[in-house]
Amino acid sequence: MASETIALRDDGLNLAELARLDTAKKARTGEGLESQLAYLAETRADHAYSPAVQKLFDLVLSYIEDAEANHRAGRQPAAWMCGGLWSPLYYACDTVPISINEVGRLGSSDAMTVAEDYFQLPKESCSMVGAVLGEFFLRADRTVKRLATYNMMCEPLNIAWELLRAEGVDVFRVEGANRPNTEDEAGRLRIIQDFIESELRDLAIWLHGRPVDETRLSVELLRYNRILAKMRRILHLRVENPLYIRSLATMYLLIGTGTYFGKPDAYEEVLDGLLEELERPDHIRPYPENLVRLVWSGGRGQEFGVYKTIDDSGGAVTAWHTPDEWTRGYREDLPPLQAYADYIITGRTMIGTPVRHLKRIEETIAPFQARGILFYGYVGCSFAGIHREIQSTHFQRLGIPTIALEGSFQVGPPSGQLLTRIRAFVEMLSR
Ligand code: SF4
């Protein structure tokens, strides 16, 4: 299967074509869904009634291929980006951000083999690092060899970017200040904010050779705030119509807030279309009376079978706490670079200790009618392991059921054991 995938890609098939082939293979052989692309094709077919969801998946499946092709053809510069934080600056500098996380999500199942054999990554190291490194290497001859990263992400990734630098990738590092942010004082925040502002100025010069036009940047920050407001409205409408957009499609909708899949206007049209569909009173999709609404916290997960299993077991994820959602957006009363720096150090909820995050999760339980919380992280990630421990203990004390899930980042189906635990959790909460 792995070598078949590579051969197809060398033949020039794009991701949409691969998704059709994956589904055709499943239909032919009667096997379970094996790849992320097959899950996407299936959930897309399940949403045949929604033109907006169809357009969403068009964006998802064409995102990386289009960004790379437009860059190669000289139509629109692009650069890779680690984390969704820099998108407004990329767009303000006329550069399409390509999310490094997406290449792992829709990549090839050969990536881990490359990571272990070529980069000599130990098997027990974090699967996210291996999948990203391996996949980047596999597409090295046709992709953009420029990448901006954030040193705050984690040490294993910091090392991975140096391995890519050694392969000829132009790596720009945005420095950060990792700290337990429950103890921030005004003076310390001011120093960090000034520093981040200067890092943003340098990133703009790396992106397009000159300082960012601050008026353009304002437009992008306002766009993000507008998109976030639409997303919140969609998520709230979904509470009463939880299966109109199923969990995997909702996860992709949320991912789009970080990059707009390279096409900001088209992405916003998807949100507008979905709002229009969800606001029609006759558009409720039937769902079981005892459907279990859940909170998802942590990494978004590459194992799409997890989302399918939640939905198929009588659950639905209605509230999400993943790195880019549920931030308060950018302050509109500050100059743009200052607002950007303020957002990076105080607006996001995932950076610093997980303690500050607890309150935000608590606040979503009642409005999203959640009966339990899924804490998701990747095998080998010590950061997420500590966060899950602190968070689970906190919510257990409050009497709110939680389950800690550990999955893998690389392409492939989730383990049977993981799916069994999810089914049991949803079933327990449905009684
Ligand atoms: S899963 Fe954890 S260890 Fe792995 S790259 Fe992400 S933050 Fe780093």
Largest sheet: 4 strands, parallel
Between the first and last Cα atoms, what is the distance in angstroms? 41 Å
Described by the principal axes of the CA atoms, the overall outline is: globular
Oligomerization: single chain
Task: Indicate the mean pLDDT.
Answer: 85
Domains (count)? 1
* SSE order: HHHHEHEHHHEHEHHHHEHEHHEHEH
Q: What is the alpha-carbon Rg in Å?
A: 21 Å
- Please list the strands of the largest sheet in the order they lie side by side: 2-1-3-4
The ligands found in this model are: iron/sulfur cluster
- Contiguous runs where pLDDT drops below 50 for at least 5 residues: 1-31
What class would the helix/strand composition place it in?
alpha/beta
Which range best describes the helical content: under 10%, 10-25%, 25-40%, 40-55%, 55-70% or over 70%? 55-70%
- Strand % is 5-15%
Itemize the secondary structure elements and their pairings.
Layout: H1 2-10, H2 15-29, H3 36-46, H4 51-72, E1 78-81, H5 87-92, E2 96-99, H6 100-105, H7 111-117, H8 127-138, E3 146-150, H9 155-166, E4 170-174, H10 186-208, H11 214-239, H12 247-259, H13 264-279, E5 292-298, H14 304-312, E6 315-321, H15 336-347, H16 355-365, E7 372-378, H17 382-397, E8 402-407, H18 416-430
Parallel strand pairs: 1-2, 1-3, 3-4, 5-6, 5-7, 7-8
Helix pairs in contact: 2-3, 4-12, 4-13, 7-8, 8-9, 10-15, 11-13, 14-18
Residues 126, 128-129, 154, 156-157, 378, 381, 383-384 line the site of iron/sulfur cluster.
Family: Belongs to the FldB/FldC dehydratase alpha/beta subunit family.
Pfam families: HGD-D
Protein name: 2-hydroxyacyl-CoA dehydratase
